[in-house]
Amino acid sequence: MSHLAILPLVLPLLAGIVLVILRGRGTRVRRLFSLGATAALTLSALALLAATVDGSIHVYLLGDWAAPFGIVLVADRLAAFLVLIT
């Protein structure tokens, strides 16, 4: 199972936590970290789009639970393109 479908959700969450921790640091450090996190998010969105460009659908089961009981993330071409635009 590829964790590429959940990466656009987890990466900004972790970046926000780190930015809260870096609150006492200088503005330059926070800006550089924010720029790096944005670049990493863009690269992960491009990788997700490249993985779905052939028409394949990637399914990620959170907690390995089935669909009626757990949260299921689905990445297809449209979803990957919308993540990249966002």
In short:
This protein has 86 residues and is mainly alpha-helical. It contains three helices and two strands. The chain has helices at residues 7-21, 27-52, 77-85; strands at 58-61, 72-75.
Strand order of the largest sheet: 1-2
Helix content: 55-70%
List low-confidence stretches.
none
SSE order in H/E notation? HHEEH
Let me know the largest β-sheet. 2 strands, antiparallel
Strand residue content:
5-15%
* Cα radius of gyration in angstroms: 15 Å
Q: What overall geometry do the principal axes of the alpha carbons give?
A: flat
**Mean pLDDT across residues:** 92
Rounded to the nearest angstrom, the distance between the terminal CA atoms is 25 Å
Q: What structural category arises from helix and sheet content?
A: mainly alpha
What's the helix count?
3
Q: Total number of β-strand segments? A: 2
